[in-house]
Every structure is written in C-alpha cells, then in structure tokens.
Amino acid sequence: xxxQVILSSVxxxxxxxxxxxxxxxxxxxxxxxxxxxxxxDLIIAxxxxxxxxxxxxxxxxxxxxSTMLRMGTATLKMCGTPCNGCISxxxxxxxxxxxxxxxxxxGRVQGTMACGRFTFxxxx
Length: 124
Description:
The chain is built from 2 helices and 10 strands. β9 and β10 form a beta hairpin.
C-alpha cells in the first residue's frame, strides 16, 4: 500500500509495509525504517543463549521501560509496572520470536507483544 503526499511541490512516496491491529496484546508497526530482521534474529539468539537465566527490568524510564539489548538496527525494550521485575531470558526469546513471525515484512520487523506481566517491543 502506498500513498502520495504533495508538499510545496515536493512529492514524497510513503510506503507502509505492515500495520496490524492489536490482538492478544500484540501490535505490528513495520515500515521500511524498521529494524532489519537479521538484527532481530541476533536479539533472539542472544536471549536463547541466556536460556533460563533471569532477565530483569532495571533503570526504567518514564514509561516503565528498560532497554534490554541493542543489536545493529534493532532495540529490545521490556516494559512493566511496577518496574524491576524479572523473566526468563528464554521466555523473552520466545516472545520476540512471535513478534518476528507476526510482524515480518520485506526483511524488517517492528512491533510489541505482551508476555506475562511484561510487554516487549522491538524497534529501531
């Protein structure tokens, strides 16, 4: 799907790759500016390597979110209230794998998903 927008004699083509409605605590916002799927795969692999170890939310910002990991163009955020909780890193890998499967479009991925009491987000 594409739209053309004309601004002061400059024509821009906006391409929206995938936007899915929130269902079961998940939303996708994948565009051509979203992280590369290969970088999301690296996040998943790193979380799997840590397996059953706890991954904990610390250093929360105003939105009760912590940046867990950055790989190339992809950033993984963990959000929850109250802040400072933990979840198995392997469970995070499973959740991010579901985001990747649902939100993948044209080699890119961006979205959020609720997993337990946390919400995980993959973005640029």
